[in-house]
Fold this protein.
Amino acid sequence: MLEQQGRTSRIAHHHGLRAALLSLGTALVTLSAPIAHAAPQAWAPLASPVAAPGADPFYTAPSDAELQAAQPGDVLRYREMSAKAYYLFPVKGQAWQLMYRSTDHKGRPVAAVTAALLPSNAPATGRKLYVYNTAYDALTLNCAPSYQIAKGTALEQALIQSGLNKGWVAVVPDYEGLESFWTVGRNSGQAVLDAIRAAERFQPLGLGGSSTPAVLTGYSGGSIASAWANELYRSYAPELNIRGVAAGGIPVDVGNVARKVDGKLFAGLYMGAVSALARAYPEVDVNALTNDEGKAMLVKIRDMCAGQLLGGQPDVVGAFAGKKMATYTTVPDLLAVPAVQQIIADNRLGQRKPGAPTYLYNGLFDQVMPVEDVKGLVGTYCDQGVPTTFRQVLGEHITSVFLGFQGAFNYLEARLAGKAIGSTSCK
């Protein structure tokens, strides 16, 4: 599943999940926070409107030497954004973009970016952290949450707002990284965990360090980041205090997702996954696996996203609806290629014990995610001794994010309040 392309990518989902929008306008002064403990370095104010990431030096990664010198979660640079209000749900507060050091799926030090939102109703002490992983399924940084938030066109703002209304500090990571590794689980999960570390080390947010109670949630593409962060939590960032993780519309096995959508309405998610994984795993000879039409498809798709038309980006779902992958390949079944099967196996959920209590939900009529895969994941987590709650909602893939969110949010609120979990789906 692969191809080398410009800068940005990751897989499997979509959605016009736009609710209220964060009108954080154009941005102001940028300061570079210390790698190691160097003094902050001033940046020039950004022009208005906000420049796209490709033309914005803030998104340029530091040198390899600087990354090597930093620890995972160290803030490399930051800048404050204008935090005027959300489009439909006004909130006073402050917002920043943070670039921080993380680790990619091959163990290499990399830079990533997150938005950090501090509502004015946050308590003076004992602040809590709400990590919302949007379903931004992107092959370009133009769809990254930190840019869309600054631009005022971010996805799922009403759902982010739910945490801000409680006075929780919110972190919204660009968990695909600067190369947009859509559907690469380890890369996304580690980027989320390091975004938490970065927020806890960023003094203006007023958090209590690694003891800060944190919860994570995300739907579809965002569920990849949330569930992988939970599975990597104890091994990669055991010092954190993650109280609970909720994920919906979960692609447990990206190969099974590809089989389900191939030739149907959401076939573009399969094409996007191939493009993203090609970047992440350049050792696979995508040139040999694609015909001329496939090579043209990979060029066409490299700057697309799923469900981001509001942000002005071409949509992979609309562009490739009804297409079959066999049209683009030199092999009858791309998913049967051993190298591709290995990549799918490497990115399959359920291979590690989650570190925090878990709430999973899925639409009964989900036309993208195989529901039986999710039920199998619930069974795996239960067998591992993880308190796991599973709920099915009467929706398909897009509507289920809204139909299932309130139950997920209530679960996370109870975890932050220290309430007993009660009944689970484990027998």
